[in-house]
TrEMBL record:
Entry's Gene Ontology cellular component terms: cytoplasm
Subunit structure, interactors included: Homodimer.
Keyword Magnesium attributed: no
Gene name linked to the record: grpE
Official protein name in the record: Protein GrpE
Record's signal peptide: none
Primary localization: cytoplasm
Residue stretches of biased makeup (Basic and acidic residues): 28-37
Entry similarity comment: Belongs to the GrpE family.
Native organism: Salinimicrobium profundisediminis
Gene3D superfamilies: 3.90.20.20, Head domain of nucleotide exchange factor GrpE
Annotated stretches, region: Disordered: 27-50
Keywords: Chaperone, Cytoplasm, Stress response
Length: 192
């Protein structure tokens, strides 16, 4: 559903609710007016009508507050949907980023400067495009403390140095975030 249709739907729902409330209030006012016109009526009926009017006002206020909450909630959901709509496409592109990294490493070994420049240029352009869409690489390096909330340990090896016990020894696959959400956890090797 388009944003325009959402707005029209919200406006029409709001108008329907307002019309219903106005009808209820008009009926209550008419009842109060007819009661005032007839002087034979007792004061208690007038109080009863005032109480009914207060109840209707209370209903109206609650209904209106509920509708405002609905509008706020759907607006927030729509914004969240727009932020993460591209998530599937970006997740599908992460292996391509990994392939660029592997290609650059292999070209460095071959020492072909011109080929390296071309591949780096394409890689940087691709990374900048994804960064503009909200993708961030998670900074993880050797020696960082392992945190199971943000890292995925794929294996544990004897620590090559004492200071690496319980810490990250190697990063096998980089992790990425889209906005505040982790879309791929970094795969790491920890020392024991």
């Amino acid at each position: 559903m388009s944003e325009k249709e959402h707005k029209e739907e919200n406006i029409s729902e709001e108008e329907v609710i307002k019309d219903q409330v106005e009808d209820i209030l008009d009926e209550a006012i008419e009842k109060a007016d007819t009661q005032e016109d007839s002087k034979d009526e007792e004061v208690s009926e007038k109080e009863t009508l005032k109480n009914e009017l207060e109840k209707e006002k209370d209903k109206f206020l609650r209904l209106f507050a509920e509708f405002e909450n609905y509008k706020r909630r759907t607006s927030k959901e729509r914004v969240e949907l727009f932020k993460t709509a591209s998530q599937d496409v970006i997740v599908a592109m992460l292996p391509v980023l990994d392939d660029f990294d592997r290609a650059i490493n292999e070209i460095n070994k071959a020492k072909d400067k011109e080929l390296l420049k071309g591949v780096e240029l394409i890689s940087n352009k691709f990374r900048e495009t994804l960064r503009a869409k909200g993708l961030e690489q998670m900074e993880v390096k050797e020696g960082d403390t392992f945190d199971s909330e943000i890292h995925e340990a794929i294996t544990q090896i004897p620590a090559p140095k004492d200071k690496l016990k319980g810490k990250i020894v190697d990063v096998v696959e980089k992790g990425y975030k889209l906005g505040d959400r982790i879309i791929r956890y970094p795969k790491v090797v920890t020392g024991k």
